[in-house]
Batch of 2 targets.
Target 1
Amino acid sequence: MEVHTPKAKCLTIQASSEQLPESSSSIIELVSGIEGKQEILREQLADETLQPLFLQAQSATGTEESKTPKFVLKEGVLYRKSTSHKTLNEPETRTQIVVPVNYRKQLLDVAHDNPQGGHLGVRKTTQRISKNFFWPGMYQHIKEFCRSCDTCQRFSTGRDKTKAPLVPMPVIGEPFFRVGIDLVGPLYKPSRRGYKYILTVIDYATRYPDAVALTNIETSTIANALLSMWGRTGFPRELVSDLGTQFTSRLMKKLLELCGIKHLTSTPYHPQTNGLVENLNKTLVKMIKAYSQQRPHDWDTKLQQLLFAYRSVPQDSTGYSPFELLFGRKARGPLDLIREHWEASPTPDPVPVDDYIKDLQSTLKMARDIAQEHLMTAQEQQKIRYDATSRPQDFNVGDEVLFLTPNKNNKLQMDWTGPWRIVRKQNHVNCDILDERLGIEKRVHVNMIKPYVNRLANVYCIVSEEDTGPFSFWEGDREIHRNLDKVSINSDLSPSQQREVKGISAKYKVMFSDLPGRVQGVQHKICTGDAAPIASPPYRVTGKISECIEQEVREMLDLDIIVPSNSPWASPIVLVKKPDKTVRFCIDYPNKITQNDMYPMPRLDDLLERIGKAKFISSIDLTKGFWQVPMAPEDQSKTAFRTQGEDRPILFLSKKWHSSEHSMSTIEKECYSIIWPIKKLKPYLWGRKFTLQTDHAPLRWLDNVKGTNNKLLRWSLSLQDFTFDIKHIKGKCNVVADALSRAP
């Protein structure tokens, strides 16, 4: 069978945003690369999308003006003619060239990416192009082109400020069940005692605040301040903070673990998670700023008095003051003292302790129930107002997104960085993103990211006909060797993506096989010049490795990869373990006579520079890829290797008796004839069981007589490292040993 296969090569143009060509090159291609009307006409006629427009132009009759656009032919070139009204009295007739599909991309580059294009929006770019050109679906193409512009996506516009719907925090009913903490400072004006930071704490149930002035924000200082506060209120069950190093250090984690406190953290640049303490900080700083106008260095001494002002004022969300929700009574402040003095109110009668406690409990329960109802109502109203300008942000694992830069160093810095890839979703509003180029992973709120739109790549296919000759396949049942279960799919893909990959694998299952193919049209040649054949001795192998070699050789023989050979060349076998614990069969050619081809190898830094900006990197995992390249017939003998197959004699041992050995008894001579060859053949015999054949019957009773002869005892002990049987055969059957002993 002969197969004539077209040899195709795909060239990807503008595969990534970092590889965008300069727009000036597009101008040069459109101006100097086009020969004029003849080429435009040729491209228009070859464009299938323009054929219906040619039919409209050919069927058009009359020259009357029409309010609807129409297509006309001028010297064979297709135009679009339309009338627009800039004003009521000045209609404008516009004649546009209908652009073939091959030139649309370059026109979009010039109109948008070129410096004269200025990266303007869809409307301005459409106005610029439609002044001279038109093609079917032009507005949608311009919209997609501008939307996928990498540069435009990295700069903020008003439309970028989309936010996800509000997720209210759960309403807490138990005081100091959950508290929020944060740090304020360093303050512009430190106190006389060196305080320039404030640790703020607020209770989520009662909105009761607390604060401590600090000289530094080391973890040990903050830990001592928290223990001091918790000595008055008790240990909370949950603590909410940002990701400051003081709150996430090992010391703080250990403290919270010992106190049985669950630590909750907000995502970076999303303070709304801990909005209560942020509002407390804002109000507290405003009060300190107002007090500091009179005494700028004594604010730390008045900190608790400023907190009293915050605690004694009713909250809009609860309807009660934090002091009243916590203590069950109203705070007696300066205004209450003035009123009591003016009214000269009599001292109230004393109340029994039991009655006071019961009344206090009922008052606290009623106040907290009402406060929870007010909180829920306030949250519902807040969510309605917030969601009026929000939009659901639906991201999936694997999506590419841009991350908003919180702080810019200059006005020319881009607002968005990326693209990042979503690797996992924590909940509806938090997800983990990864910069695959830098290997940086971070957790962000969905309000800090937006989808990244990739620009579609233009792929051109260059096809050249080439006769590759006969193409022979392996003449076996390949179907039994195709196992899609061995195809591993990345677990980070979404379920729908995994199903899509499985579908593609099943569709092209012919590509997944344990059997190697065979390349046609090329052969591997080994140039050794006039060098004589080289035969290297094989490496020593153990029994298990020998079994692996035999199995590999059988498989290669079945696949017609190797054939038996009597070549004078020989090289040893080497088995190399693969990462998947399987074995790779290799031949070691340790000679220096092979003449290498002096082709330049690509430099590593050049390869990294080429692929460093790529968005996708793929590799082909061939089944025994090197074995798919056939060897040139004249060089096949040079690839010979030695294997264990048929049993052949590999060694003949003989020894002449010395004068001292002649005086030994017959039994000693027979025993020595065992000791000497076993020691010589120890590398082959040690660790395996073997059989010793002899025609001397007394050796069978060696174990019985060794105790009466010291020499036999020593020899018997030296043989304990070996496992063997002594088999007696008749003298007439031991012809090999007799023939060798009688040979001249």
Target 2
Amino acid sequence: SLLGRSQNLRALLPDAAPVAEKTDLLIQMACLLTAGATPGLLEQGQD
């Protein structure tokens, strides 16, 4: 699941990194995963 994936990604990031930085990275990764899963929807939204 996406939630489980996010938790795994968070665990891989160093604890020294600021929480905001972790969150931003997780959001970017989630966006990339979503974009990769729905390329058709992404292309339609760019018109």
